[in-house]
Amino acid sequence: MKPDFNKTNGLIPVIIQNATTLQVLMLGYMNEEAFTKTQLEKRVTFYSRSRNELWTKGETSGNYLNVVSISLDCDNDTILIQAKPVGATCHTGATTCFGEPNSKGFLYQLEETISERIESDSDTSYTNTLFKRGINKVAQKVGEEAVELVIEAKDNNEELFKNEAADLLYHFLILLKAKYLNFNDIEKVLKERSS
User: Fold this and answer.
1) The pTM is what?
2) Which of the 8 DSSP states describes residue 89?
C-alpha cells in the first residue's frame, strides 16, 4: 500500500471511521511521515496544517484513535482508517466531528459494554459472572428469556413484552461473545439472505 503524496502536494485527506459502528468520526490530513508513524504505532497521527507539525490524535486529551485497518481509495490519494476510538473524537467532546448519532445504533454500543465488563473481570458484574459460568449457562439463560418472551407475546402487556425482548437481546449478545462471534457476524448472514 503506497499513498501517492506527490499527486496532492505532500498531504492526503484521511477519513477516520469507527471500526465497530462504521460511523465516520472525522477528517484529517497526513503527510508521508504521519502515515509511516501511524502504521508503526497503530495510533492515528495527522499532519497539522495550522501548526505545520505532526500531532498524534489524543496526545493531550488521551482520546486516541487506535488503528484497526488502513486502506486507500482507487486513486491512492485518500486514506480510510478504521479505528477504535478511546473517548470522544471531536475536540468539542462529541463522538464525531460531524455531530451525528451513532450510525449502527445502540446494540453495537451495548455489545462493546458487554465486552468491557467481561474483559474487566469484575466480580460485581452480572454480565461477567454469567459469562464465567460457561456456554451452557449462557445458552440456558437465552432459552429462558426466549420462553418468557413467547409467554408475554400471548398477553396484552406491552411493557412486559418489551422488557422480555430486551432481556433476550442482551443475553443473546452475551451468547455471541461466548461463541467468539459478534453482532456484525449475524448482520452479514442476514444481509446475504436478503440479497
Assistant:
1) 0.60
2) S
